[in-house]
Specification:
With 210 residues, this protein is mainly alpha-helical. The chain has one domain: Winged helix-like DNA-binding domain superfamily/Winged helix DNA-binding domain (Arc Repressor Mutant, subunit A), CATH 1.10.10. The protein contains 7 helices and 3 strands; from the N terminus they run H-H-E-H-H-E-E-H-H-H. Helix 3 packs across helix 4.
Length: 210
């Protein structure tokens, strides 16, 4: 399910490396802001100002969250360079990129599984509502919105997980390519939300009889 792992590396372009994820780590990431920071900095280094603008939290809250994540060994200083407002800024990256595989997920206590999933569902719902309310949800002709019900067996479920994992990795890689294109054309990239999910449907709703 949720999580992959990006190794500590001098070059953020290096690929994932194994890491033992446990309940203590997920306890730190139960906080929505800390979770968002780890997920964003898993793709590239970010400074506190960028993170505040992207998450909607104050810079003070973002700075505190970064401090907590550094203490837990989940985020590290990547470099210092001119920031968005012309000042020298510290840029941080995730020490690991979290995407749990099935065996790792099943080892977590149910309460940790619930809080982690709840964070993702809440964040995704909030992102969708904000985008819809602002009129931006359908503003790009290439936006994607899919919902479907299909019948699968255990092998099919596993293969769909693999398809989604591959799609996510390609989407993350496209961010770096997009930023490079924008730098060459002197244009600004825009924020996009990704949401991939597959799960067993709940019990069918039956019409109540009078």
């Amino acid at each position: 399910m949720e999580a992959a792992v990006d190794s500590k590396a001098a070059d953020t372009r290096q690929g994932p490396a194994p890491f033992c994820l446990d309940a203590e780590v997920h306890g730190v990431l139960a906080n929505r802001l800390r979770w968002e920071i780890v997920m964003r900095t898993g793709a590239r280094p970010w400074c506190a100002t960028e993170l505040a603008e992207a998450t909607g939290y104050s810079r003070r809250h973002v700075t505190k969250a970064i401090k907590d994540l550094r203490k837990a060994g989940l985020v590290e200083l990547a470099e210092k360079k001119p920031g968005p407002k012309g000042k020298v800024a510290s840029f941080y990256r995730a020490a690991y990129r979290f995407t749990l595989h099935t065996a790792e997920w099943e080892k977590l206590p149910s309460v940790v599984q619930a809080s982690t999933t709840g964070n993702i569902v809440s964040s995704l719902y909030g992102d969708m509502v904000e985008s819809l309310d602002s009129g931006r949800l359908h503003s790009d002709p290439h936006h994607v919105m899919m919902r479907d019900h299909r019948r699968l067996d255990a092998t099919g479920m596993k293969r769909v997980e693999e398809f989604f994992r591959e799609a996510y990795d390609k989407a993350v890689a496209e961010e770096e390519a997009s930023i490079e294109r924008c730098e060459q054309s002197e244009s600004e990239p825009f924020w996009v939300v990704f949401g991939l999910s597959s799960f067993k449907r709940g019990p069918e709703r039956r019409a109540s009889r009078s």
